């Protein structure tokens, strides 16, 4: 590590010669060719003339003593003009204080004039306009904010301008000199307030750019559906139907398949959402305003008002604190997850279902029945206690009660609206008879015959209360209103009941009329629906009423079904305590062999006698640990909650059949009368390879086969397997495990549903899901799929303030699963399988050689990345480690997060270059090219690696190393950069491309738009880490306020880089 200002000079990458490859150039090319680098006219890049057109003279920015002169650099830069435009982001940046408001006014007028012209939906244009509005607005606000502080703060704006201009230059030329200029500017930042303001500026630029990109994707999606644009991938429901029809499948077959199809998207609380909830709401508002900009009928006044609203939101963001001061609780996380369901998915699901119905009818078949929708929403939030001691049985109970309260409130609103919508008088005789003979008497029973309940300090309520004043609120001529008034009253009682529980944590006696199961609401509403359809009012029935029935189908009474997750060792500890208590021989459960465990578990599962007294371990359980008592309390709580609110019990680190049987016995012992299905989670490479033997042992047990009733769910862990063995070995282990488990299940007459534990990043199984689903092993989807939606990916898929984003997500998953089910990919050739297996082993060996076998690697990780500082973010309730130890105990999220921050991302690509080089040297390049061309799984694997490589920047990673890593660890960095170049070259060779993302313009555009803002914030973060760590090593009597500012600045850079990279962990 170095402290001298002139010490850093980017080292030339190593030359890597490979058979069939050209040796790497001495300096890596820019991320993307400058010829296509035109995202935003605010950062317009001049075509280089002699390599340096538009770049100020070096002499102009270097003082007589050789030190970098910031003012001279910026002055020379601003003197240059390109196509008549200043290098500045916005005219307001260059304005003098008195001219600032005038510049802002001119900018607004220009934006209004731009909006008046109709423009086609093209690939870049509308995105450029959105970026222009957002970035210019932000920079105006930054300028104003700094001017309020006085003349001394002008240096901050100068540094921001210099960063922007130098970054633009660097990405125009890709030269070492221009990168070195960027590093010199970073070293000019000294004041803690400058770190914070500059970091916030680039963080917000990246966030606003991400919002604009997301809105543009929706814009082009909608244009495609109108026939006004083309998409790189066709992923709508109509596209899927068209492809299947062209393949010779019939409309009846397609409808039958999608009727039976089920995609379960499971929200998790994994700590990868780095943005505060306070700010997320403002970003959602900005997204909505951008969507409004596309409305062609806005008047100039309306458009000007829209711009003012945008400015207001951005100004509020700038004046808000972006730093979390405390870690969220599991209850906080649960409420955030449910908010996504309430505000987005509640509207998106019916809209998605209507799109599906329209596509079916256009194909000549009937729409789906009201009780059919091929998506479900689940959650782990409040149920995932694996490694998180803060998720207790009380938290799980509270989360379910909160969900029931919010669901009742939402259904009450819908029933209230339906009460006034369905003023229809005509109905079937059967319906009218049911209303007269069953509904009306249940409403009009005398108050003295109908008991009521008092809810805490609330007024007395009961099923009669609404009708007490007038038992004939609606006449018999409006039968639907009679039913809906009855339903609405039951929902009001239910909402107040759970509201009281949530507020006081006291559970009163259930009042009469309380809704306890979906059928309480479904049955009367479905009778209304059937009567309307049969009596000539189907058009009305298929409006709001159908939407509510669909919501009941998808969301139930808790909005989401909750999974419970716990690590297998905790169940082992509980059973060990039980066997010690009941005195089974000299040894207890933990010391038994696997055979002895299974034999005993099956025996007890079949026994009718209680295993322990109901009062244990509260009584006579002095030797039982607190953790084991908590495990037992959790099972008792599950029995009290009831099956309708719960989904499955997931066992992390599942390794043996006894791990699964143990959970069934604990459910039986502690009062879960309707036991949850148990879902083993196979995570590490070894566990994946052993999963077949584990399930084979279970399927051979008659008790188990009877218990599961022909259905089994198995979860596959992408994160830990990748951390354990590297990306290539992980995906191959997962592929083989899926094939084997599906074949075994089919042989045993069991319908297997695979649950994919994917994270947001490629390193944790993330990436474009449509391609990933279509690349799964043939026959492993079969119309059923579960997948986790984690952390910031919840926002990407369902949030963002854009309803279209959520609908697009639901369509994309449904499209891919339908095609994968009805047109599965062909089985790979034996030669392809053998080649991938060989690549897997070679890449795993190369990966582990560095990550696990080098004793200094953990030290390098903690020095070269912000890994030790990630805890400052307070982005999740769960600790970052399962227990003390090295890489193997570090959770996958901080492992990935750390390398994302430095833009090195070694968990994705490390080892792949060595494996490919070995194969190429053996003359296997033609085979690799054939695999890439004909095998979707291999192609998608290479495509995802290539996407990650395109986001990497080894100059940035090397600068972190230069500033932070001790000399004795530098050889590790040299080897990693060598491996990076090798992987880059071999992946390009195998994919027959000359530069990254040559055939993926959408992702390429997204990266191009972000990269100019990324480098300054990365360099700033490296400087902050250097300064903070140096201060911690040698404490001084400096200002505590400075320390807080520096720590806050670091958090801001972490948030900004997360947005720029598109994810955290």
TrEMBL record:
SUPFAM superfamilies: Phosphoenolpyruvate/pyruvate domain (SSF51621). Its cofactor is Mg(2+). It catalyses: oxaloacetate + phosphate = phosphoenolpyruvate + hydrogencarbonate. GO terms for molecular function: phosphoenolpyruvate carboxylase activity. The lineage of its organism: Eukaryota, Fungi, Fungi incertae sedis, Chytridiomycota, Chytridiomycota incertae sedis. The keyword Signal does not apply. Belongs to the PEPCase type 1 family. PANTHER family: PHOSPHOENOLPYRUVATE CARBOXYLASE (PTHR30523). The active site is at 270, 723. Keywords: Carbon dioxide fixation, Lyase, Magnesium, Pyruvate. InterPro entries: PEP_COase, PEP_COase_bac/pln-type, PEP_COase_Lys_AS, PEPCASE_His_AS, Pyrv/PenolPyrv_kinase-like_dom. It comes from Gonapodya prolifera (strain JEL478) (Monoblepharis prolifera). This is phosphoenolpyruvate carboxylase. Its EC number is 4.1.1.31. One of its GO terms (biological process) is carbon fixation. GO terms for cellular component: cytosol. HAMAP family: PEPcase_type1 (MF_00595).
């Amino acid at each position: 590590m170095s402290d001298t200002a002139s010490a850093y000079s980017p080292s030339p990458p190593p030359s890597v010669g490979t058979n069939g490859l050209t040796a790497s150039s001495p300096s890596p090319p820019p991320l993307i060719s400058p010829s296509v680098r035109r995202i935003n006219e605010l950062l317009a890049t001049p075509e280089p003339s002699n390599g340096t057109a538009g770049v100020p003279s070096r002499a102009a920015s270097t003082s007589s003593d050789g030190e970098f002169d910031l003012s001279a650099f910026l002055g020379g830069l601003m003197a240059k003009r390109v196509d008549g435009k200043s290098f500045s982001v916005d005219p307001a940046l260059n304005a003098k204080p008195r001219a600032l408001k005038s510049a802002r006014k001119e900018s607004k007028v220009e934006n209004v004039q731009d909006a008046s012209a109709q423009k086609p939906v093209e690939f870049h244009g509308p995105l450029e306009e959105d970026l222009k509005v957002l970035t210019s607005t932000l920079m105006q606000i930054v300028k104003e904010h700094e001017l309020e502080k006085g003349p001394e703060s002008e240096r901050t704006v100068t540094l921001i301008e210099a960063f922007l201009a130098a970054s633009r230059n660097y990405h125009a030329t890709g030269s070492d000199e221009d990168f070195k200029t960027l590093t010199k500017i970073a070293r000019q930042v000294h004041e803690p307030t400058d770190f914070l303001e500059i970091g916030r500026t680039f963080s917000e630029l990246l966030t606003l750019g991400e919002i604009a990109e997301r809105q543009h994707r929706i814009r082009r999606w909608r244009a495609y559906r109108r026939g006004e644009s083309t998409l790189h991938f066709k992923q709508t429901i109509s596209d899927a139907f068209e492809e299947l029809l062209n393949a010779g499948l019939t409309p009846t077959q397609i409808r039958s398949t999608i009727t039976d199809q089920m995609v379960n998207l499971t929200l998790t609380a994994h700590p990868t959402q780095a943005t505060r909830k306070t700010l997320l709401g403002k970003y959602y508002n900005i997204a909505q305003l951008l969507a409004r900009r596309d409305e062609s009928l806005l008047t100039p006044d309306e458009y000007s008002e829209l711009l003012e609203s945008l400015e207001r939101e951005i100004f509020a963001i700038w004046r808000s604190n972006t730093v979390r001061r405390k870690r969220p609780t599991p209850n906080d996380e649960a409420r955030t997850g449910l908010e996504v369901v309430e505000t987005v998915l509640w509207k998106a699901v019916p809209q998605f279902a209507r799109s599906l119905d329209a596509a079916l009818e256009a194909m000549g078949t009937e729409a789906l029945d009201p009780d059919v929708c091929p998506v479900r929403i689940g959650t782990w939030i409040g149920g995932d206690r694996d490694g998180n001691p803060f998720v207790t049985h009380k938290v799980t109970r509270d989360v379910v009660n909160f969900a029931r309260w919010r669901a009742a409130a939402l259904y009450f609103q819908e029933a209230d609206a339906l009460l006034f919508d369905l003023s229809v008088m005509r109905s079937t005789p059967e319906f009218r008879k049911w209303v007269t003979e069953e509904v009306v008497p249940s409403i009009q029973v005398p108050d003295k015959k109908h008991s009521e309940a008092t809810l805490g300090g609330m007024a007395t309520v009961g099923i009669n209360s609404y009708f007490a004043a007038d038992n004939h609120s609606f006449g018999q001529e409006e039968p639907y209103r009679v039913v809906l008034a009855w339903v609405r009253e039951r929902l009001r009682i239910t909402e107040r009941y759970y509201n009281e529980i949530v507020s006081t944590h006291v559970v009163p006696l259930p009042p009469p009329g309380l809704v306890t199961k979906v059928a309480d609401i479904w049955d009367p509403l479905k009778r209304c629906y059937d009567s309307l359809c049969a009596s000539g009012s189907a058009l009305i029935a298929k409006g709001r009423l159908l939407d509510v029935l669909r919501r009941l189908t998808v969301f139930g009474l808790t909005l989401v079904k909750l999974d419970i997750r716990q690590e297998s060792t905790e169940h082992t500890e509980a059973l060990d305590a039980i066997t010690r208590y009941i005195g089974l021989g000299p040894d207890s459960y933990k010391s038994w062999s696997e055979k002895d465990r299974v034999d005993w578990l099956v025996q007890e599962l079949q026994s009718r006698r209680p295993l322990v007294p109901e009062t244990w371990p509260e009584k006579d359980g002095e030797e039982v640990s607190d953790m084991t008592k908590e495990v037992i309390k959790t099972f008792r709580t599950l029995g009290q909650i009831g099956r309708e609110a719960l989904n499955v019990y997931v066992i992390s680190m599942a390794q043996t059949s006894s791990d699964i049987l143990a959970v069934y016995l604990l459910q039986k012992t502690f009062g879960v009368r309707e036991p949850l299905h148990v879902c083993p989670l196979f995570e590490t490479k070894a566990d994946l390879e052993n999963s077949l033997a584990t399930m084979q042992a279970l399927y051979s047990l008659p008790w188990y086969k009877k218990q599961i009733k022909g259905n089994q769910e198995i979860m596959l862990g992408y994160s830990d397997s990748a951390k354990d063995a590297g990306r290539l070995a992980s995906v191959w282990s997962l592929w083989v495990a899926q094939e084997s488990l599906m074949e075994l299940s089919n042989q045993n007459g069991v319908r297997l549903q695979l649950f994919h534990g994917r994270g947001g990043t490629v390193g944790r199984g993330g990436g474009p899901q449509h391609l990933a689903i279509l690349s799964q092993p043939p026959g492993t989807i079969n119309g059923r799929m579960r997948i986790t939606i984690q952390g910031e990916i919840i926002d990407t898929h369902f949030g963002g303030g854009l309803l279209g984003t959520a609908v697009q997500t639901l369509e994309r998953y449904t499209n891919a699963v339908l095609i994968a089910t009805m047109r599965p990919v062909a089985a790979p050739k034996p030669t392809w399988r053998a080649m991938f297996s060989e690549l897997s082993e070679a890449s795993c060996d190369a990966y582990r050689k560095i990550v696990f076998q080098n004793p200094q690697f953990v030290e390098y990780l903690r020095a070269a990345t912000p890994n030790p500082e990630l805890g400052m973010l307070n982005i999740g309730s769960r600790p970052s480690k399962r227990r003390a130890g090295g890489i193997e105990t570090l959770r996958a999220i901080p492992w990935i997060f750390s390398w994302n921050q430095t833009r090195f991302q070694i968990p994705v690509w490390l080892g792949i270059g060595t494996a490919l080089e070995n194969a190429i040297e053996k003359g296997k390049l033609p085979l690799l090219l054939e695999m890439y061309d004909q095998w979707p799984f291999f192609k998608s694997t290479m495509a995802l690696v290539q996407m990650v490589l395109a986001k990497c920047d080894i100059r940035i990673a090397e600068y972190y190393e230069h500033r932070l890593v001790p000399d004795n660890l530098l050889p590790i960095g040299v080897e990693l950069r060598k491996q990076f170049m090798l992987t880059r070259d071999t992946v390009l060779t195998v994919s027959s491309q000359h530069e990254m993302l040559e055939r993926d313009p959408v992702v390429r555009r997204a990266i191009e738009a972000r990269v100019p803002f990324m480098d300054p914030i990365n360099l700033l973060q490296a400087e902050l880490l250097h300064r903070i760590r140096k201060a911690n090593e040698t404490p001084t009597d400096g200002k505590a306020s400075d320390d807080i500012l520096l720590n806050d600045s670091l958090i801001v850079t972490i948030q900004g880089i997360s947005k720029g990279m598109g994810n955290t962990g």
